[in-house]
Every structure is written in structure tokens, then in C-alpha cells.
Write a structure and sequence with these properties.
With 348 residues, this protein is of the alpha+beta class. It has two domains: 214 residues, no CATH class; 85 residues, Golgi alpha-mannosidase II (Immunoglobulin-like). Strands 5-6-7-8-9-10-11 form a seven-stranded mixed beta sheet. Strands 12-13-14-19-16 form a five-stranded antiparallel beta sheet. It has a three-stranded antiparallel beta sheet with strand order 15-18-17, with no helix packed on it.
Length: 348
């Protein structure tokens, strides 16, 4: 992949999208043509409370502080995703006001009414702590009309500042699908953010499955939850071990000299994904002579990952589940032993 910069000075901000066409010539004379849409939005109108940008290189969302004041753009968010019929407007506003006061971001869920959203979008879009819309929840699983999500996307974005014909609104629109590939393109093609609801773990007796909502964008790696740009614990209250693991992951992503974001979000990092023959999924981000190694498994068996050739100065950044590091290998325990996925992060 190669970045191709071009000036925007000849473009005027507008609510409609610009159509881009790129033609590349290969050494053998063959030409490759690609096309896409570019939205260059004007300053937000008075009825829009905030703006959420998408970094299409890293997949991260960018926004100003949730409390409604000017401040530096942020890449990490304390996010609340309420699921309700929202029929009590007064109570809803009290909750959202309190969230804003405490700097909590909102994913506004339209799953129960995403085919008639005008009143709700007009009510919510003025809130500065709105991060993104959630248009539909597993519409493929309920066999909703194939164009329902596309129509909802167009309506939401048209109310949120775009022309509704391909231009982006001031907040991304997300959805989650249920099936591996049941009319995937028809349901998901217009979404800005694809959310993956991964059920991690195995039920044991009275213990239910542990659920995470994993935020990811169109072009990301095939690695599990912890490699996507966003990880949201789905249910609250939830078991203490899940909260402990999620909190540890959040700190490893954002804090300390070996935080993962410094590698994952830096456009200068080079990335490589490898799945071992034993079933360990690994990702390696290299930056300035250092490499961040992430390894995970969903296998019901103890697995080892050799570290020969990785060099000295190994630093363990994060471990979820049953994992340990030795001089020459990392051992990831069986998921059966703890009813969760095994995740290990190493900086060297």
C-alpha cells in the first residue's frame, strides 16, 4: 500500500460527496482503476452538537471532549451504549445529561426503530457527547428487508448533515450482523463502522457466555477482539473477572511507555499477521526498531509460541486468561480452563 497525497485546495466544502477515480499503471503496461467517495464537509451547523471523524488508516474515531467544550481531539472514549425503547424522553434526557456532565460518550441505538428514526435523530444529534449512531442489530438474523439498513443509513446521515446520497454525516453509522455471510454486502455495504459481536468462551454449568461488542472498521486485521479499534463489554453488571480483564486491556491500550496504541495507531508502523500451525493468531507492529507482538487463541488446549529470534528486552504488556512467558516461549492455556479467550501482548 502506498499513500498518494493530493491537495484539497481546489475543492469546496459541501454536504454531498465528491467522486474520486484513481488510475495506476503497472510496469507491464496494465492499468488498475479504483473509485471511491470523498466527503469534505463544511463547518457543522448549529443544530449539530459535535463531530466524530474517522481515521481510515488506523480505523480509530476522533472527537473533541464529550462535555461540549473545545479541547484536543481524542482517540479513546469512555463509551455507554444503552439499549432501550427510549419511550420516556424525560428520563432519557436526564441520563444523557448526566453522561455528558461526566464525560461519557454515547452510542445511540436505533435497533428497535431503525426503520423510523427521524424524530430520534433530530432529538439526539445536538448532543456534544454523541459519538456514533447504531442503526441495526443483526438484521440478517431476523431477515429484515435487504435494503432496510441502506435506507436507514441514508436517512440518518441526511438528518445528521449530509445530502443523504453518499455524503457522510457528522457522526459515523454503525451496525452489527449475525451471520458469517448471509447477504453481507446488502446489509453492511453502506455502514461506516462494522461491529462484531463475538461470543467468547464456553458455558460452564450456571455460568453464561461472556459477551463483548467489538468495534471494527472496514479494513482491519483478522485477529480477535483485542486487535480491533474498540472493545466494549456488552453487559453490565458483569462478572468481576471480565471487568478486571477489560480494565487491564484498556490500560495496556492507552497507558505507559509500552502502550499498544503507540504502535497500532501510528501510520509509520508496519504490520504483519501470522496464524501458526497450532492455531495461535499473532499480529506484529514494528516501529522505530521495536515490535509489538500480540498473540491470542480460542483453542481448547494449551499452546506454546516460540520466541527464538525475537531478541532481548522482552516486556510483557498484557495477559488475559491463563498465560505465562519463559525465556524462549509464551504458553497460552486452554480456554476450557477459564471459560475465556487467551490473550498475550509482548513488547520487544
Amino acid at each position: 500500500k502506498h499513500a498518494l497525497p493530493f491537495p484539497l485546495s481546489s475543492l469546496e466544502p459541501r454536504t454531498g460527496a465528491y467522486s474520486l477515480t484513481c488510475t495506476a499503471s503497472i510496469r507491464n503496461g496494465e492499468q488498475v482503476v479504483g473509485s471511491s467517495l470523498l466527503t469534505y464537509t463544511p463547518a457543522k451547523p448549529a443544530d449539530i452538537g459535535g463531530v466524530t471523524k474517522m481515521d481510515m488508516h488506523s480505523g480509530m474515531l476522533l472527537a473533541r471532549p464529550a462535555i461540549g467544550e473545545n479541547g484536543p481531539t481524542r482517540e479513546f472514549f469512555l463509551l455507554v451504549h444503552p439499549i432501550s425503547t427510549f419511550d420516556n424522553t424525560s428520563l432519557l434526557n436526564e441520563v444523557l445529561d448526566e453522561m455528558q456532565k461526566n464525560g461519557l460518550w454515547l452510542t445511540y441505538d436505533l435497533r428497535l426503530t431503525y426503520t423510523s428514526v427521524t424524530e430520534q435523530v433530530n432529538q439526539i444529534k445536538s448532543r456534544p457527547n454523541l459519538l456514533l449512531w447504531y442503526s441495526a442489530d443483526e438484521p440478517d438474523g431476523t431477515h429484515d428487508p435487504l435494503n432496510a439498513t441502506s435506507l436507514a443509513q441514508s436517512l440518518i446521515t441526511s438528518l445528521d448533515g449530509s445530502d443523504g446520497n453518499g455524503g457522510a454525516g457528522y457522526h459515523p453509522v454503525s451496525l452489527v450482523l449475525n451471520c458469517e455471510n448471509f447477504f453481507w454486502s446488502e446489509y453492511a455495504s453502506d455502514a461506516d463502522v462494522w461491529v462484531v459481536e463475538a461470543i467468547l468462551g464456553i458455558s460452564h454449568g450456571g455460568l453464561g457466555r461472556r459477551r463483548f461488542s467489538l468495534g471494527t472498521t472496514l479494513l482491519k486485521t483478522s485477529l480477535p477482539a483485542f486487535l480491533t479499534p474498540g472493545v466494549v463489554s456488552w453487559n453490565d453488571p458483569t462478572p468481576d473477572d471480565i471487568k478486571t480483564s477489560a480494565s487491564g486491556l484498556a490500560l495496556a491500550l492507552t497507558s505507559g511507555p509500552s502502550n499498544m496504541s503507540a504502535f497500532i495507531l501510528n501510520p509509520s508502523s508496519t504490520f504483519k499477521q501470522v496464524t501458526t500451525s497450532s492455531g495461535i493468531d499473532t499480529g506484529l507492529w514494528t516501529l522505530d526498531g521495536k515490535t509489538l507482538l500480540l498473540a491470542a487463541t480460542l483453542e481448547a488446549a494449551e499452546l506454546g509460541l516460540g520466541l527464538k529470534g525475537f531478541g532481548n528486552g522482552l516486556t510483557e504488556v498484557f495477559c488475559s486468561g491463563d498465560c505465562s512467558i519463559g525465556d524462549e516461549s509464551v504458553v497460552l492455556g486452554s480456554v476450557d480452563s477459564v471459560s475465556e479467550h487467551e490473550t498475550f501482548v509482548l513488547n520487544y
